[in-house]
Amino acid sequence: MKLTSSRRSFLKNGSLAAAASALVLTNLNGCQPENKALKKPGQTPNTKFAVNIEIWWKDLPVLDRLEKTAELGFPGIEFWSYADKDLDAMAAKCQELGLSIRQFTAWGFEPGMNNPANHDLFEEKIKEAIQVAKKLNCPKATVVGGNDQEGMSREEMHENIITALKRVKPLVEEAGLMLILEPMNIRVDHKGHSLYGSPDAVRICREVNSPMVKINWDLYHMHISEGDLCGHLNEGFDQVGYIQVADHPGRKEPGTGEIYYPRVFKELKTLGYDGYVGLECWPLEGELAAAARVAQADKW
């Protein structure tokens, strides 16, 4: 217990950020090429990570964010809306840098797919997302259930989500695009959202019953909503389509809060998850230090 407590305390203080940054910068600058143990922090030992470029280097132009991601050695990216981006330029730059685009957002909070009045529009947006995914060579797209609808019970809203997903099921199966349904948390970030925690999301996806409709299992949201991260992953793993992470409190990178991510990453590997893990977390002390913490959390 003393070793664990001491190590986690070290991860949280500024000396880790300074030491890790110095080590990484030495490697990137090529000052110690003879030491093959030194490498870019994004070249993590067990897990492949995709940087969320909406959050990391958010003040830089999009193409510069891609350059920064590659400089740190991360193999993939994810992002939110495609409406405000030059998709052709992104695709070309990612191909040049060897970056894989893992997922983007196809349907957000409003209007909710938990209301049948929006299902025609939902289908049109999924058709559009299929074309975007083809252009980006991207295998997955996030969809969100929607905020609470006046006059509807949570059960009714969930049934409407099932109806919407079944409607587009043939489209995404033919296209090979996996829709990943993301449950939120309503305690901290998304009060008034209709889908939170894993049991309802698992039930919805099992009822839709498609290899192309799974869950965007955001461990930050799940931790706040229900805890017992490894236990719930075991119970619903057949419906996991993608994993995202952030620590709590603060929604910063792993190693800054109360979640012991080495244990969770090891459990994912044990369960057989070999996909990417999205870094939808706000760097606490800059991107370089955040990358070092992510690499540390991926060691067990």
From TrEMBL:
Keywords: Isomerase. The active site is at E182 (proton donor/acceptor), E280 (proton donor/acceptor). Pfam families: AP_endonuc_2. One of its GO terms (molecular function) is isomerase activity. It comes from the Bacteria. The keyword Magnesium does not apply. Residues 67-294 form the Xylose isomerase-like TIM barrel domain. Belongs to the hyi family. This is TIM barrel protein.
